[in-house]
Amino acid sequence: MAELIEELSQVSLDESQEAPQEVATKAPEEYGTPTVIVDDLHIVYKVYGAATEAEKGNAANALMRIVRRQGRPQMKEVHAVRGVTFVAHHGEAIGIIGRNGSGKSTLLRAIAGLLPPHKGAVYTDGQPSLLGVNAALMKELTGERNIVLGCYAMGMSPAEVEQRYEEIVDFSGIGEFVQFPMSTYSSGMGARLRFAISSAKTHNVLLIDEALATGDRDFKRKSQERIMQMRDAAGTVFLVAHNLDVIEETCNRVIWLHKGKIKMEGEPGEVLEAYNKA
Amino acid sequence: MSQPESAVADAQAGGRAGESLAELAARHGLRRAIARPSMPAYLRQLWERRHFILTYATSRNVSKYSESALGQLWQVLTPLLNAAVYWLMFGVILAQSKKIDNYPAFLITGVMVFTFTQRTVTGGSKSISSNLSLIRALHFPRAALPLAYAIQELQLLGWSMGVLFVLVLITGVHITWLWLLVPVTLVLQLVFNVGASLFMARIGAFVRDMNQLLPFVLRTWLYASGVFYDISDKTKGLPAALRWALEFNPAAAYIKFMRDVLIYGHLPERWVWATCIFWAVFALIVGFWYFWRAEERYGRG
Predict the structure, then answer these.
(1) Mean pLDDT value across chain A
(2) Which of A91, A168, B34, B162 is least crowded, fewest Cβ atoms below 10 Å from its Cβ?
(3) Does A21 have pLDDT greater than 80?
């Protein structure tokens, strides 16, 4: 395992020498005090069951590995974020773009304080929240029960849940289906209910992962509006999306992640142009 | 590896050149996003999440049986079938029953009490590792998960106890005032279970193979806890130290307490009380402290 980490850091060192980084030096003076500071952040996490067919082998091989004190090949360490540094200020909406697997979602989770840094630190004001309660919901339960469960999971009090309940049902537009188990919903209905629940809470620092705005065109527009409202209410918003139009409309600053590092950072127009060319 | 230019630019934007980001953070009162709260703060957060813990436990119980035709009836059927299997095995086939008064009641009490601990500990050890996506998505004190699993088992225990009371009455035992002590021992056992499952939750989160190994450990514990036989009877020939170790076993103590008040109608001896209380307090303090120490690392898996 130690060798693996060494190897990974070797790789990342080589890369950083090859690729000189374009960094935007325009400071966002027009914005308020810092709300999120990310200081040379590294995230390493473990993945299980990632072995190739050749590595799997049989029980005898497994025994030999234990005897030779080699690690399980099924477990890999992934160095997802490799030294990211930036400061976000009050009133900013920051878009994070990059290819699949460039570390966008991992970075978001680290800012939310859900993944511990391997090295470096994230400093925040209050508790940044990730928009999304999918993991807390249970598909065997009715929409009704899931709304209550999801609201509690986000840390609401019973009074708040009662107050928000009608609004959530209305916004999701699932009507009487709220009495049925979520497993009977169409994928669009499920997505609508999930978005309605997760956007019911107001946040100070808001982190939005892509693919939230799913469903039919009407609902897409509704959810886009809701995101704009939340951006205005929140101090700082981070938005991860593949849909570059959304980023251009919503954000005042864009960070382009490539293989866990910042490749470029700055005005949306500038960065998106470079990203589209690459 | 890092972006020094951007860092410096941002630090300057904050107002003072040459200031490190950590200093900038400190000046604006920002704290590390991931830091373990102090123990009192942690307990307070946990209390604030009590509605989530309760709802999560209930929801898991409801969803657990929602796919089967008999539905929630399984909450009663499961303990009944368990008791029937053990009674057939040890009461009829192995004919243990001749040596012990009212063996069916003796056996069923033992099985129900042990199952409570067994299921809570099993659930607790999986509570973190099987909820990683939840841990990586939302903020809450992670101890809420093992606690919710313990509450879930407590809700099931309500049904088991109902079944147990009925079966014990059928075997000819009369209700006494001592039955009022049943909640006392159950609370002590619950506290012990919570402590043990918090402890196992941390181990299960980082040692993945624990979930494979745990059933064997628990089965060994089951056989050592006098569910099927009377410990003091079987250990007569053993050295005093070994005998004491077997009797000091927490599961054995909770089982003995329950049998004394429920079936045999006498107050448990002082050492039984002491053992039950000791294990509850000890497990809760050690388990909670041990779990809390790794609070910020559970998301890593």
Answers:
(1) 76
(2) B162
(3) no
- Which residues of B are less than 8 Å from A87 in CB distance? 10-11, 13-14, 21, 24
Which residues are CB-contacts of A180 (< 8 A; sequence separation ≥ 6)? Answer: A142, A143
Task: Specify the 3-state DSSP secondary structure of A29.
Answer: coil
ipTM over 0.85: no
The answer to whether residues B107 and B22 belong to one domain is no
Instruction: List C-alpha distances in Å: A27 to B8, B204, B287.
Output: 10, 46, 49
Rounded-to-10 torsion of CA A106, A108, A113, A114: -50
Provide the chain A residues 229-268 that lie in CB contact (below 8 A) with chain B.
261-262, 265
Residue B189 shares a structural domain with residue B213: yes
The answer to whether residues B135 and B184 belong to one domain is yes
> Which chain A residues are closer than 8 Å to B4 by Cβ?
85
Chain A nearest-CA distance from B16, in A, is 13
pLDDT, residue B44, reads: 93
Q: How confident is the model at residue B2 (pLDDT cuts 50, 70, 90)?
A: very low
Q: In DSSP terms, which residues pair with A39 in a beta bridge?
A: A121
Tell me if A82 and B30 make a contact (CB, 8 A cut-off). Answer: no
pLDDT per position as a tens digit, A154-204: 888 999 999 999 999 998 888 888 899 888 888 888 888 888 888 888 777
| Whole-number Å distance between alpha carbons of A257 and B51 | 39
Contact of B5 with chain A, judged by CB distance below 8 Å, is answered with yes
Question: Does B9 touch chain A if contact means CB atoms closer than 8 Å?
Answer: yes
Among B3, B66, B301, select the one facing A262 at the smallest CB separation: B3
Closest CA to B13 of A253, A119, A218: A253
Count structural domains, chain B.
Answer: 2
Q: Are residues B8 and B150 in the same domain?
A: no
Q: Residue B20: give the domain boundaries.
A: 1-31
Question: Which amino acid is present at A59?
Answer: A
Q: Does residue B113 share a domain with residue B7?
A: no
Region A75-94 average pLDDT? 85
Domain boundaries, chain A: 2-36+89-277
**The two three-digit tokens of residue A74, written as one number:** 């099924």
Interface check A157 vs B, CB under 8 A: yes
Q: Is A114 within 8 Å of B135 when comparing Cβ atoms?
A: yes
Q: How far apart are CA B280 and CA B287, in angstroms?
A: 10
- Both B143 and B3 in one domain: the answer is no
pLDDT at B204 over 50: yes
Q: Which of B12, B59, B61 to mutate to test the interface with A (most CBs of A within 10 A)?
A: B59
Q: Given a cut of 60, is residue A206 above it in pLDDT? A: yes
Query: What CATH superfamily is the domain A2-36+89-277?
Result: P-loop containing nucleotide triphosphate hydrolases (3.40.50.300)
